[in-house]
């Protein structure tokens, strides 16, 4: 009997500790509900719905963490019928400089339509060739086969094939690697040691000539430094696949 009594009181005590916490999360400035706010308490968590509402079974008094992209993270003690007003956060980002134009210019000030892929993004995706990134770039397509080069099209303009008898090549999308014009040579786009990729959508003939009537793809490798460094990567796969890449930075002389 004593054992049953203890178990009964333990159950009541546990139910008293665990409570169903509900609430709503809104934007402090506009008062509008926020969808998709992360509400976390230890190993438990949930998201707010389209009405900004959430529900979580946690002990009373535990601290809940509210976080969302573009808002300041808040930590508040759990209680019933919570009302949380989130404050917008200022997100500071590194300025992106476009280098393939007539002069280096901030991406925000470039008049042309430009897509910029940074080296950090390349490393995050794990892509080892430019072809792996083409699906992420709006209005950029390519055509080709295993026995011939790739040809690019920007906004539908560009070469789709070039077989014998089709006349001289007339590439409409320029392809530049460290200011070297490689237009029409296929997809020379290994991304190892690439610092930035810029895709200009629209005529760039004033800078790069007739090969850039539809646009330009520019790859920029990592700038050298004043100290010695070396990076190497290897890859192995099925069908006896193996590969390797290496880059070395050596300081030869002072200017």
TrEMBL record:
GO terms for cellular component: cell outer membrane. Keywords: Cell outer membrane, Ion transport, Iron, Iron transport, Membrane, TonB box, Transmembrane, Transport. The keyword Membrane applies. It is a multi-pass membrane protein. The keyword Ion transport applies. Residues 107-215 form the TonB-dependent receptor plug domain. One of its GO terms (biological process) is iron ion transport. It is found in: Cell outer membrane. PROSITE patterns: TONB_DEPENDENT_REC_3. This is TonB-dependent receptor plug domain-containing protein. It comes from marine metagenome.
């Amino acid at each position: 009997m004593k054992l049953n009594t203890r178990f009964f009181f333990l159950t009541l005590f546990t139910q008293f500790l665990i409570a169903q916490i509900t609430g709503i999360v809104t934007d402090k400035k506009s008062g509008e509900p926020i969808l998709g706010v992360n509400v976390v308490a230890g190993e438990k968590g949930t998201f707010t719905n389209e009405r900004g509402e959430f529900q979580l079974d946690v002990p009373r008094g535990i601290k809940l963490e509210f976080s969302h992209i573009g808002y300041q993270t808040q930590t508040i003690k759990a209680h019933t019928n919570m009302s949380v007003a989130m404050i917008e956060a200022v997100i500071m980002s590194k300025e992106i400089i476009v280098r393939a134009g007539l002069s280096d210019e901030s991406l925000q000030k470039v008049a042309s339509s430009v897509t910029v892929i940074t080296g950090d993004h390349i490393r995050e995706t794990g892509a080892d060739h430019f072809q792996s990134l083409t699906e992420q770039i709006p209005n950029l397509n390519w055509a080709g086969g295993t026995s011939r080069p790739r040809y690019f099209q920007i906004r539908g303009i560009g070469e789709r094939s070039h077989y014998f008898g089709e006349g001289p090549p007339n590439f409409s999308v320029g392809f530049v690697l460290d200011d070297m014009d490689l237009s029409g040579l296929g997809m020379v786009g290994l991304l190892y040691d690439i610092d930035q990729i810029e895709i200009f959508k629209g005529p760039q003939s004033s800078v790069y000539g007739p090969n850039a009537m539809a646009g330009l793809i520019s790859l920029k490798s990592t700038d050298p430094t004043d100290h010695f460094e070396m990076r190497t990567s290897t890859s192995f796969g099925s069908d006896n696949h193996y590969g390797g890449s290496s880059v070395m930075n050596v300081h030869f002389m002072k200017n």
